Amino acid sequence: MDFFDRLFGKPTLQGLTGKVTRGLRKRGALDISANLELAEVTATIDGGPVRIYLGNVLADYRRSPRSQRAAVLQKFLTSLAPQEDAVPPRYEDAKPRLMPVVRSIADIGVATLSAARLPPGAKPFSSPVHRPLVADMVVALVCDSTTSMAYVTEEQVAQWQVDFQQALDQAIHNLRGLPEAGGWKELAPGVWSGEWGDAYEASRILTPDLIHRLGVPEPVALVPFRNALLVTSERNPAGLQLMLQVAQTSLEDNQRWLSFEPIRLAGDRWTAHDPAGESCELLRVLRGRNNAATYSTQKQLLDDLHQTSGTDIFVASYQLMQRDDEAPRSYTVWTEGVDTLLPPAELIALVQPEGNNAKHVLVSWEDALAFAGDLLEPSDLVPIRYRARRFPAPHVLERLRERAVR
Predict the structure, then answer these.
(1) Which domain of life is it from (predicted)?
(2) I need a labelling partner for 372 at 20 to 30 A (CA). Which of 2, 68, 126, 301 fits?
(3) How far is CA 142 from the centre of its chain?
(4) How many CB atoms lie within 10 A of CB 20?
(5) Which of 51-60, 62-71, 105-114 has the lowest mean pLDDT?
(6) 123: helix, coil or strand?
(7) 314-315 and 340-342 beta bridge pairing
(8) Using CA atoms, how far apart are residues 270 and 134, in angstroms rounded to an integer?
(9) pLDDT tens digits for 7-39?
């Protein structure tokens, strides 16, 4: 951080949002809307919709010397174009610019909900074309340029008259064209970090031969952020513990969270990897923090949609609680008489209001499913929520009280 940053503080998301909004107005953009919770700005430019994720812009802005930040912002604003303009209509024109990106399925779910918030009559945003990859991750396609990265949609792939796999193969071919040498840094014996600095570190799990060339036996990887790739051996539990610790200590400085699920490479296929020993608890805490952030964003979007449509459903929070020096645990609240969308937290408080007081019992999510699962309807939301229209009967509550968590 330079002297002026120490004096005035780092650029903030709120400050950057104001600068982007003013820059968009000068450019003639319409329908400008900012959402600090989602770190995004939406607008209409040249008659087409544009969605701007400010997390990446803020990271670049902060990394730049103060004297160059105005130029960085101006370059970014100049590069903005409607989604359909950023992706060529002809496949032959798009081929050299296609790149694969790894994202969490929750990112796609939140993007879909966010798109549903557009005002009536507005041109809809199309969801990115994507396919399941491993654990909670999907692979999507972007059309890259020197100043921007635009997601490719299902409609655009259909317009190209190619299938997804053909486009993905081309994107991976382009990924292989990026420099390989000098990208790996050894954090500790047998623990490696991919640091190419091109925003495609996480995407490199799509090139298993690159991982194998490290010479790590039975590789296990972690991609906690879009610009992070950590690798160690399944035989090195201390290495996995270190990777999780690196992810934990980097949470506050990185707004592009991806996945905290370890994955194991066998041949050319990735599978989910459940660690043993000390890593389990740290992984549980990371999952809880990630879920809390994702469900918070999802709740805000659902509350906005329900308010607009007049839908009377309570969207329960996914919260973290902590006692003394214990690790945080997640919980949610199910209240009698309230139609509720519940996130699957570790614990669930069943509350019965009685005037100014209330009776409650705290149980594990597993016990709630075992004794009252017939009342929990799985939704099609991503990440998933369960709709509870009715409250457990008295005899079910008694059985749950017998298994209450103290």
Answers:
(1) Bacteria
(2) 301
(3) 16
(4) 24
(5) 51-60
(6) coil
(7) parallel
(8) 6
(9) 446 788 888 889 989 988 888 888 888 877 666
Residue-range domain boundaries for the chain = 1-80, 87-177, 184-275, 308-401
Neighbours of 267 (CB within 10 A): 7
> Is 4's pLDDT higher than 60?
no
Write the DSSP symbol of residue 227: T
Q: Alpha-carbon distance 24 to 18, whole Å? A: 10
Count CA atoms within 13 Å of residue 107 on its CB side.
24
Helix or strand or coil: residue 355?
coil
Residue 364 neighbours by CB under 8 Å, 6+ apart? 346, 347, 348, 403, 405
Angle between helical axes of 69-79 and 13-27 (0-180°, round to 10): 50
> In 259-356, at which residue ranges do the beta strands (DSSP E only) sit?
263-266, 269-272, 314-315, 319-321, 329-335, 340-342, 347-354
Integer angstrom CA distances of residue 354 from 131, 317, 335, 348, 351: 48, 22, 11, 19, 10
- Measured at the CA of 338, the angle between CA 296 and CA 348, to 5 degrees, comes to 55
**What is the CB neighbour count within 10 angstroms for residue 384?**
14
Q: Which of 331, 332, 313 is nearest to 322 (CA)?
A: 331
